[in-house]
Design a protein that fits this description.
Blueprint lengths: L3 E4 L7 H12 L4 E7 L2 H13 L3 E8 L2 E8 L22 E5 L9 H16 L7 E4 L14 H9 L3 E5 H6 L10 E3 L1 H9 L3 E3 L2
Parallel strand pairs: 1-2, 5-6, 5-9, 6-7, 7-8
Antiparallel strand pairs: 2-4, 3-4
Amino acid sequence: MANLLVNAMGDACPIPVVKANQALSQMDTPGILEVLVDNEIAVQNLTRMGTGKGYAVQAEKQGDASYSVRIHVNARPEHAACSPEPVCVPDARGNLVVAVGSHVMGQGNDELGAILMKGFLFAVSQLPQLPRTMLFYNGGAKLTVDGSASLEDLKKLEAQGVEILTCGTCLNYYGLTEKLAVGSVTNMYTIVEKLAGAAQVIRP
């Protein structure tokens, strides 16, 4: 297995995609191509490029202006040989806010509700236009901490520029303040501001 690292920090679009395409063409055996970039748009374009070629892609926010995009080249898909010209796609985030007030979805059975919530958050990560902000409060705070089944999907969303905010009062109430694993802590005033300024709000 051959792994490659491409440093595209500071590179403007479409350079990160160009560099990634060049590196992929050099990978004759399965491996992981990791591309380092400093902005969410580059993450979105690299993710779109990798998934378009049939590869699994993982994106992770490492700092305020530091992102890692890992493209898993387990096998070369038949259509991978035909690489389209790299393009700069605008920010994929719309003025949509997702407000999550519980760690389960719906009422009736909590085990089923947890499965439904995991599926809902995964579906959000696959939207062609991502939400601008996701708010987690009350029981929803349990979804952004260590051990959450949805952490991978939420970290992918954060890496692509989605703002992940969790109510600090709620984290404290459940004794989870030190376990927050994605996004940042917020307060009720900010939550109200985000909801009031949204063009559309989705509450699962």
